[in-house]
Specification:
The chain is 49% helix and 16% strand. The strands form two sheets. The protein has a seven-stranded mixed beta sheet. Helix 2 packs parallel to helix 6. 52% of the residues are buried. The structure holds (2Z)-2-iminopentanedioic acid (2IT).
């Protein structure tokens, strides 16, 4: 490995020992860009890597709110403005009880390269809180969102930093957050948030975009392998918004999701989640209980396996982990490799531990695609939402969908080309890292040291 790359990874390991997820993502990205650094000694001279692993700034703030019984609670809030080289900071807000500084930083670092890959002018950012939405009433969620935005509003703006949703933050939360921003600022700057409702500047196809984009990317991979999506069986994890989008688009294209999971276990539906009734039930189940998916098995008469994940199932063609980080560890990766399934398409942010990811990449019979490319359709349509807001126009669903499709094909091509350029064959993981990195590094280089 390039000595400068190695020294920066080493520096991050030592400096951020207490932030394991952040160290993990730095190791993953930087180890891919070693050949780029060999080819660009000027990047080392400008100390690009050391600058790149440090967020431009990061805010930590207090969020106090009152529950329905009149009791006060104090949560921690963060917003990380990781890298603004190619556009306003852009990335979601995650509300989940395990959120901490390491998780926000890993997500912000990933977001920087993902956003660069979209080809759109958006920098990388991420935020969130350790607020636990489970079991909270709508009023409590509203009061929390208002308190969160009261702390955040002075640091964001349509040309500064544009948050969106992530786990625990959907259309409802974005509505409360936007309402509070509007009240505090006294302006209708709806380009400050994306994932908005359609009545106040949201984009058609944004709720579907991450899942649809993942399936469009998958289609590009299949095309590369002279294969087709028709008849394919998908094993995914999760049953949130992203999983829903995958189920919907897969069904539309003649494929089907036959396995999905929740924190309580997994569902095996050999018929596939491919009817309108089943797909709508996923939305309903998620809204009512984000922790349990077992009720699907009762309702549709199929199998539920408690406290387990679908990794290792042989009666599928494609794996798509779509739940959360480090969902697939070495033990699961060994089962996946042994199943003989060819396609491993990451969807959630960093769903695979580094050792498991490298193990899967080393399997000759497998094709592995990285989440920062596969799930980029979500943030890409967020950037399209920003465009619509600044034009004060609304595009049709067909127009947004066509652009999304084009963007996903572009990401796949750019990744494959970047890997080929450095003699790495069809390595979509290295290719995505290299393509995203080159854009950010070159922008930083041209903008000078500061
Ligand atoms: O991880 C992600 O890319 C997101 N949560 C979406 C970010 C966005 O700004 O739409």
């Amino acid at each position: 490995m390039n000595a400068y790359v190695e020294s920066v990874i080493d520096y991050v390991r030592k400096t951020y020992e207490s932030q394991p997820e952040f160290v993990q993502t730095v190791e993953e990205v930087l180890s891919s860009v070693s050949p780029v650094m060999d080819a660009h000694p000027e990047y080392e001279k400008a100390d690009i890597l050391k600058r790149m692993v440090e967020p431009e700034r990061m805010f930590t703030f207090r969020v106090c709110w009152m529950d329905d019984k009149g009791e006060y609670h104090t949560n921690r809030g963060w917003r990380c403005q990781f890298n603004g080289t190619i556009g306003p900071y852009k990335g979601g807000l995650r509300f989940q009880k395990n959120v901490n500084e390491s998780i926000i930083k890993f997500l912000g670092f990933e977001q920087t390269f993902k956003n660069a890959l979209t080809g759109l002018p958006i920098g990388g950012g991420k935020g969130g809180s350790d607020f636990d939405p489970a079991g909270k009433s709508a009023d409590e969620v509203m009061r929390f969102c208002q308190a969160y935005m009261s702390a955040l509003y002075r640091y964001i703006g349509p040309d500064v930093d544009v948050p969106a949703g992530d786990m625990g933050v959907g259309g409802r939360e974005i509505g409360y957050l936007y309402g509070q921003y509007r009240r505090l600022k006294g302006t209708f700057e709806n380009g400050v948030l994306t994932g908005k409702g359609l009545t106040y500047g949201g984009s058609l196809i944004r709720p579907e975009a991450t899942g649809y984009g993942a399936v469009y990317y998958l289609q590009e991979v299949l095309k590369h392998e002279n294969d087709t999506i028709v008849g394919k069986r998908l094993a995914i994890s999760g049953y949130g918004n992203v999983a829903w989008g995958i189920m919907k688009k897969a069904a539309e294209l003649g494929a089907k999701v036959t396995y999905f999971s929740g924190p309580d276990g997994y569902i095996h539906d050999p018929e596939g989640v491919d009817t309108e009734e089943k797909i709508n039930y996923i939305l309903k189940m998620r809204a009512e209980d984000p922790m349990h998916c077992a009720s699907y098995a009762e309702k549709f008469g199929c199998e539920f396996v408690p406290n387990a994940k679908p990794w290792g199932a042989k009666d599928v063609d494609i794996y798509m982990p779509s739940a959360m980080q480090n969902d697939v560890n070495m033990e699961s990766a060994e089962k996946i490799a042994a199943s003989g399934v060819k396609y491993y398409i990451e969807v959630a942010n960093m769903p695979t531990t580094n050792d498991a990811l490298n193990y899967l990449r080393s399997q000759k019979h497998m094709i592995v695609a990285p989440s920062k490319a596969v799930n980029a359709g979500g943030v890409a349509v967020s950037a399209l939402e920003m465009s619509q807001n600044s034009e004060r126009l609304v595009w049709t669903a067909e127009e947004v969908d066509a652009r999304l499709k084009g963007i996903m094909a572009g990401i796949h091509k750019e990744s494959a080309d970047a890997a080929a350029e450095y003699g790495l064959g069809y390595d979509l993981v290295a290719g995505a890292n290299i393509a995203g990195f080159k854009k950010v590094a070159q922008g930083m280089y041209e903008q000078g040291v500061f």
